[in-house]
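Weekly structure sync, notes
Attendees: PL, DS, HV (note-taker this week)

Item 1: Glycine zipper 2TM domain-containing protein
DS walked through the input record. Source organism listed as Duganella margarita. Sequence as pasted into the shared doc:
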Amino acid sequence: MTQRTLMAALLLAALSNTVQAQSPKEHFDSDTKRIATRYADDKKLCSDERDSSQRMQCLRDSKAEYDKAMAQARAQYKNAGKPGACHDCGKVTSVVVGEKSGEGSALGLIAGGVAGALLGNQVGSGHGRQLATVAGAAGGAYAGKKIEEKAKSSKLWTVHVKYDDGRQAAFNFDHDPKMLSGDRVQNANGTLVRR
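Item 1 (cont.): predicted structure, written out as tokens:
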């Protein structure tokens, strides 16, 4: 009789491996139906035994296989909804939009200096005019540099993440990552992707 129960267990294992494209609930339902059908078939086989002690042993073996298969199906269903352990997974804690200042070049400095010198040259006379020209050039150079930096500035999105293991990190994006606080994310090769 142990060969029958062994065959039943192997058949159940083979059948449970063939159904993979179902939802966890559908998979569980089909497994329990298959297990119950197999148990009913095993009980019919046990009833064919002539010796009562062998028949009772057959029923006990069938029941043990049924209980084992049901426990395994329940465990698979229970664990199907849980996400696998992920070392680089976490949750977005905040998304901050800031401004990344641009780089000023010599062009902005020179253009600002020339414009400032021309304006400074319009003020006063004599040494005062020379002093105003120098001050205008210096102020214009500074203003030209700042104007160019502002013109070349861009938005910067900083996404703060708290990993499942408690670590924290921040990731910068030069485009909107379309992530919100509370989103599940994963660090994939130094950047964030949604999970």
